[in-house]
Design brief:
Elements lengths: L1 E8 L5 H10 L7 E8 L5 E8 L3 H8 L5 E8 L2 H5 L2
Antiparallel strand pairs: 1-3, 1-4, 2-3
């Protein structure tokens, strides 16, 4: 399953997130795959495309970051998959 993860940096501050990322990487549990990410022009949010067979893996990953980030997780499908239904 694909997931669009929208990260809202607490207090709009990306610096602590960047520091932890440089120190520890993404801290993904086995089975959760990162595909790509984008940060809004203001630096207050990050959008990540993730993939996992088990949505519960996202909860495990979120626990590593929830002190710095508020998460919105949306299950998504590709446009071609949606329109072929």
């Amino acid at each position: 399953m694909l997931f669009m993860v929208i990260e809202h940096f607490k207090q709009g501050d990306a610096a602590p997130v960047g520091l932890r990322f440089r120190q520890n990487g993404r801290m993904l549990p086995p089975g959760l795959a990162y595909h790509a990410s984008w940060i809004d022009a203001e630096g207050a949010r990050c959008f990540q495309l993730m993939e996992a067979a088990d949505a519960g893996l996202l909860n495990e990953w979120v626990r590593c970051w929830s002190d710095l980030i508020e998460f919105e997780i949306v299950p998504v499908v590709t446009s071609s998959e949606f329109w072929s239904r």
